Amino acid sequence: MKNAFLASHTPLASPANKEGLLMLKCSSVGYMLQWVKRSPPIFQRLSGHASRKMLEKDEGRLEAFLQLFYRIAEHVCAVFGSVNSMMTKGGEIPYDLTVRLPNVPWLTLFGKPYIEFFGRDRILSAPFGNIEELPSGLIAAKLTSAPFDALTEAQRAPIREYLGSDCFMEGTRSLKLYSGGSSPDFDFTAVLPAARRQH
After folding, report:
1. Which of 2, 68, 71, 177 is such that its CA lies 20 to 30 A from the CA of 136?
2. How much is the pTM?
């Protein structure tokens, strides 16, 4: 299975609906759209999956999957995105972007806050296997060429060290074990309840 996640500032709920969930599942693909308006605010989440069998059936399907992922990320103004194999150890550990990024996934999608935080040139020169600057301005960085490769700490550690070890979770450690971290100063103005925006 493939697991994809996007975090976005864009409010996904109408003023009348402060919390909701929309889910679609079938044998090969699926997605879940979840929104919550809360104070203090949290990131809105969009996640999806596609089966390995479906992606490997045709050599163009993985690229089509990634292009769809990129288009959705651009549409929702994603600040961060990731694509991981669900076989990756620790890939499902919860994380909080206001504290630090998760451990380096197979594909990392850097949105505007992270590009400004780390610096465009620094991300483009980081020791990923492949880095692509998308037309939207987002940066997609892959650890390896194949999404189902087993990922090792030997591959991930140089990236954490280059961009800043205090910006990432490591191994399979729970978020609760971190006393702090380093992250962008996110602007949540668009997702704050109206009453809070007036103050």
Report:
1. 2
2. 0.80
Whether 155 contacts 140, CB under 8 Å: no
Residues sharing a CB contact under 8 Å with residue 151, sequence separation 6 or more, in sequence order: 88, 104, 105, 106, 143, 144
User: Model confidence over 29-68: pLDDT tens digits?
Assistant: 766 666 666 667 777 777 777 777 878 888 788 888 889 8
Tokens coding 171: 């191994």
Q: Domain map of the chain by residue range?
A: 2-192
Q: Which residue did the predictor score with more confidence, 73 or 195? A: 73
User: Tokens at residue 65, please?
Assistant: 């999957």
- Tens of pLDDT, residue by residue over 101-140, are 999 999 999 999 999 999 999 999 999 999 999 999 999 9
Cβ contacts of 143 within 8 Å, gap of 6 or more: 104, 105, 106, 107, 128, 129, 149, 151, 155, 156, 159
